């Protein structure tokens, strides 16, 4: 591609893809900005990347508040409405100290990955790829130099619930997942900047390789699996790895992020499987990132030489040990309250919350949510203090103290996940009870509220003339009429007429010889004394 009109001008801190909603649009045309490093100028794969977020942009991106919250409106809410609002606390995000390092490490890993690869034209190869389950031609592939010892990547390590996965989600939202380049000769080729593979419980390397294929399908918008199916049909781990290698080169994959690595079945996974992953990275120069607990990382890369090849280690839970920062988090979350009276944060409340959360952000949000749920559902007045906080922790998260005491252990991390699931189930049960109570209240109110015109009287009027409508048919027709706003204020005779008109629209039954034929609507009006009724009100 010629340099003329190659670069786009952007304001400082603004991505060249600002016009695109990258959360819903995964595939975008390439737009280039000048590389930060002289040696990277002209590298289409690097210059198509947006610059990483910095300073205030990081703070804004990793913050998410509850904009519609209004304490003054809470007293007017039903119990269910309050509980539904409390559940929105899970959507709140706070900037954490490791976010800045994560932003830099991700961008730097992409630079290193694309810096040590070479683009090759494949005009005569007739290579196609599937996007949105349609064939597309491509003209370039990206090869790594296996003789170059450079490997890119990082590991984000921390306690379960310290905000790693949500941080990854925010991180990648800044980057287009698939960039389509023009080669300057009328051809096109794709670049997949990142793939996120979520490890599943007891997964092995066969499942991880298939997960890479699934991530490629999602990036290209393939509703019907294409690349996941190809990997699944390939027999043997070695052959699966080769298939993955070909996809990485074909689509210029920049980085593969393996999230929740503590869920991998380490007991039945051979050590050489992990070595094969690093061999794959060495051959293709794709960057590898792992996200999970420290215990899982040590099992995955038990030797120092392999651990170093994953790159920088980012500690995601260091903030948990800083009491001053924890006080800041508590003050932020107490901005949202559903208690009967506003609660001031005290040192004793902070101490109790730290005791039952160990400073872990997800645990803090979960315990605080349960505190509000408990207060909303309580049948008597409660006092929000340290004893109440410990009571809530014991009720909703039994055994949490023992698990948090040794959370670095992989087994305890899994136990913590089970405790959280049980707490979520308890909250769901309480919300269901609140829904049922609200519905029972509505039913009682509706049954005691007498309509202006009763069903009994309307049915009696109709039966004096008609004998071929069932009680159910009359009631259904009555309900159709009475629920309309236009029926309000009408007399019993007018309502009866409207119900009859509704009934006469029903499919007609065959009349037997001995049965009196049904009178028409004019006859009914005559009987009801409505010959001159104004039909416009209907």
UniProtKB/TrEMBL annotation:
Coiled-coil region: 413-447
Signal peptide (UniProt feature, chain positions): none
Gene Ontology terms for molecular function: ATP hydrolysis activity
Region named Disordered: 509-538
Boundaries of every ORC1/DEAH AAA+ ATPase domain copy: 155-299
This protein's UniProt keywords: Coiled coil
InterPro entries: AAA_22, P-loop_NTPase
Keyword Ribonucleoprotein listed: no
UniProt keyword Transit peptide present: no
Protein name (record): AAA family ATPase
